[in-house]
Amino acid sequence: MSLLTAVRETLSGFKSLLVGMRITAREATKPLITVQYPHDTLKMPARFRGHVKLVLDPETGKARCTACGLCARACPSGCIVLEGVKREGDKRKSIAKYDLDFTKCSLCGSCVEICASDALDFSKDYNVVSMNREDFSHLDLYKRIDAETKAWAETHPQPAVVAAPATSAAPVAPVAPATPATPATPPAAAAVPVPVIAARAAVSPAAAKATESPAAPVAASALPAGPKTP
Amino acid sequence: MTFLTLEPIRILLYLVGICAFVGGNAAYLVLAERKGAGRIQRRPGPNEAGYAGLLQPLADGLKLLAKQIIVPPGTDGLLFRLAPLMVMAPPLMCLATIPFAENLVARNLNIGLLFVFSFGSINVMALMLGGWASRNKYAIISAARVVSQSVAYEIPMLLVVITVLMMTGTMDLNEIIKQQAHGFWNWNILRGIWDFSAGHIGANPLMPVTFLIFFTCMLAETNRAPFDMAEAESELVAGAFTEYGGMGFGVFFMAEYANIVVGCCLATVLFLGGWQSPIGVLSGGLWGLGWFLAKTYALIMTVIWIRWTFPRTQFYRLLNLSWKILIPLSLVTLLLTGVMMKLPLLWRTIFGA
Amino acid sequence: MIAEKNFVPAPGADPSRPASAPGETFVLNLGPQHPAAHGVLRVLMTMDGEWIQRAEPIIGYIHRMHEKMGENRTWAKFLPNTSRIDYLSAMHYTHAFVGAVERAMKIEVPLRAEYARVITSELNRISSHMVWWGALLLDLGGFTPILYAFDDREKILDLLEGLCGARLTYCYYRFGGLYNDVDDAFLQGTRDFVKHMQPRLKMYRDLVTDNIILRQRLTGIGAISAEMCRKYGATGPVIRGSGVAYDVRRAEPYSVYPKLEFKVPTYPECDSMARYLVRMDEMEESLKIIGQALDQIPAGPFMAAKVPRVLKLPPGDTCYAVEAARGRFMIRIVSDGKEMPYRVKLRTPSFSNLSLYEEASQGMILPDALAMMGSLDLVIPDIDR
What we know:
The structure holds 3 protein chains of 3 kinds. Helices cover 29% and strands 11% of the residues of chain A. By secondary structure, chain A is α+β, with helices and mostly antiparallel strands. In chain A, the strands form 3 sheets. Chain A has a 3-stranded antiparallel sheet with strand order 3-4-6. In chain A, β3 and β4 form a beta hairpin. Chain C is built from 15 helices and 8 strands. In chain C, a hairpin with a 2-residue loop joins β4 and β5. Chain C is globular, with a radius of gyration of 22 Å. Chains in contact: A-B, A-C, B-C. At the A-C interface, α1 and α3 of A face α2, α5 and α6 of C.
């Protein structure tokens, strides 16, 4: 290789290094792209696949699930075990216990898709935390909609129902790890019925601050902190 | 007060100051590197320990101190324990002759440059010792590579320093800086091209190239990316420091940053005018210190910037670069400097003017 | 296990290096736990100093028996599995499976669904190539580009998350169409992404591809001839980097690819740099394909009209091949008329791409051999299934 080509190659190689350095310098002046979780959180899109949840019928305030077992049969991982009960005065069965083995669930959506009563949907929960495994291998979906049921009962007072407004009290402190099924409800949710199949309701900053506690297992149905859109 | 002006006491105070400077730098340069890397990668870097991560070096130091220093059986006990110390001592000694400001130098030797380079070569031996004493074949391979890399890059570094030496005529570092007074155009890097005070072409028109060669050799001597085969070899196999845990590893790490500081200080002194201000005035006292530190840290930031931009070279390309490109280039600049310095004499001899 | 005294130098070994005496070699285990990004692959290397005499890949550390699961699940229940075979380009694998079942049942997929499948598959190809690019550079010691790649990949993942709710293992296609319709937000977002990505690809080229250090690391390293590719069945960018323009989208066209115009990037140099450039060009071609599909996507149904709930395929054998991000993925389903398959055979590209590694890496120095492995773009779950 002649001297001239060697020199030219060295110079162009050197120039490529300078171009590279200029690019990194320019990138260093741009804003940060990471989100400092858990100080900031992201807003989940509408179709986000959190764990599955039972859906409340907005008219009756009860879960739509009729315990037919289609979801349990459709599940590829075999993680659904459910128990139905036929209540007095009801035409069809209703759900008493819905045991989801979340350690096996692959969030494929077969159960949501196949349900004949539109009783299942994905939640927007991603902050599901616990200190022991049983909370995940036996995630009782029926218990998890207790708060929603109560909130519905509040806003739809029935003459025969004695509503115990547990949720209008002071915000529930971050709960002990044993039961992630009792979410810490922000006070704002008591006033506004939680929409059943919709995108996440906006959480007011005051309520968000009241419930924000990154270390505690908050298996809430609402985001713990102000939503931050990416 | 007269007690403090006694020469031994004065040197002792300066040495304590240097140790503090090196220690503080080693700790906080790590943080600066991580934050700088984070910035380039558009993330914050450490920001949890203390405000904006300022206590992170403390946390790291405490963690390293708390670890057990395991000396594996079968290693050469004395050499194993000696290697970290041998690697930490040279940067401290080198800084003793580097003038931080006009009067701020521990001991100004009139062979200051020689002193710095003789201590700089001990670094290589210490790494080899560390690798050898580890009784680990990967550590030895790694250490052997470091040695051949360092030896290969010392040659062009010394050649370019000789070039500068020819121009300055003195090895006294403070004198070298004093020659670069009155404005940035008098700094060696530009004075080689055109000598403003004398009004004729300078001694080395390729001085910026000389500076680049020096900078590259400094990167290679301190095992920084893109020449970090020694430490990054640990991705595949283990590195030269594999058997060192806890503070032993911490000392090697600190020494690496101390070497970077020394290298950048030297580059500042030789090429960028040391404590001289770029506008010619305000060079005295603390202003001088400020200029010196500003230039040194600018170079250190460049070293960090380079590390996070480029991938690693292969080992044989690294050696190729030194032997086949840098050495010929530095010989060319040396020759050029020699010719340019004797040019007036040559002119007179030929034309009898 | 290799017994050193039984070692016989392979015919492809570097002739300029004399074969080492048995006592001079040692065995290095590049264990299943890698600091580099490949996954759980174990490579047993017999080395002479730093030169590799023999590199034997040992697989099976992530064998999850997908093919066996195929025999124990109904057709619909196997869908989540398909995403997890190669989780970086999950859409392609699901496409192959639903395509095979649709081919067997002769289900007509509406055009809107086909275009949506193409758009999502190509987005997935880009995101898979970005992981490859970042991981390759991480192997080579450049720590920054992976974060730039992941920033752009976040945008793709956010788009797909808004579309189907998942970011990596999508399970989005169904027999006869899609799980849910593509909405305007997704289409507009994809258009914005295509516009955003063009200058970013140029930045990748300036920062990395043209960088002299990277060029020296990859050019002339890891020569794999077209002959060797054919012998081992290597496909995808590996064979296209050896000069053979083989692309399943052209050789066995499927979905709406015949209606879309795109080039098949091919480089004849056979070295790692050629494979690198093939993948970089493929990202640009994918952007072009997405742009065309976005213009051509029609309104209409997203699911075929009459797809039985409980699928029972007619007895027989069906194959379907797609161009996944790593090469040719082919699925073969054998049905005996029941509601579960009799056999699901997965022909994965990384398995064939890896099998040439032993022959190709002989006589190479270790860092170069690892750079070559990075250029093969192996995903170990794809190898082990």
